[in-house]
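thread: overnight batch results

M.L. [08:02]
morning all. the overnight job finished for the chain we discussed friday. pasting input first so we're all looking at the same thing
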Amino acid sequence: MVRKLKFHEQKLLKKLDFVNWEASTGNLHELRVLRRFRLQKREDYTRYNQLSRAIRELARRIRDLGDAPESAAFRAQSTAALLEKLYAMGLVSSKRSLEQCDKVSASSFCRRRLPCLLLKLRMAQNMKSAVTFVEQGHVRVGPEVMTDPAFLVTRAMEDFITWTDSSRIRQHVLNYNQERDDFDLAC
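M.L. [08:03]
and the structure it wrote out:
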């Protein structure tokens, strides 16, 4: 038996849904990852977890294929294709072994997000400022200006991360390095 809630308690708890409460399913590790990588949506973390689980499951299935010659050829081909795809995405460090797929986690996906790569490239001092730069439109990947911090950058696109032309941060960097052109001042 639970006592009846008082009026002010009902007012405070009016908008809470105790049946489908999202924070009840989370754990300490999830909160650490959300805080460390500045994930704004918990759904992103759960999606990364589902993808990493699917990758590990696929690697386990490939590993468990039979030893028949035709399955060995298929296993080698599918292993090479999976490792090539994961290496191109930047989720594994090498294409040597299928054991690399067991190390893929949600954090691997988080490390390929645009703000994390801004930190890696030393374009931002901390994760908070990196997320702010992306949200404010200071960063572009190739010709496209990115305003979504959840954008996953592949290894091929990593070289094309730059400041936008109209960014004040780019102008400050050019002034500091004494590389700013007079033509840029007129524009």
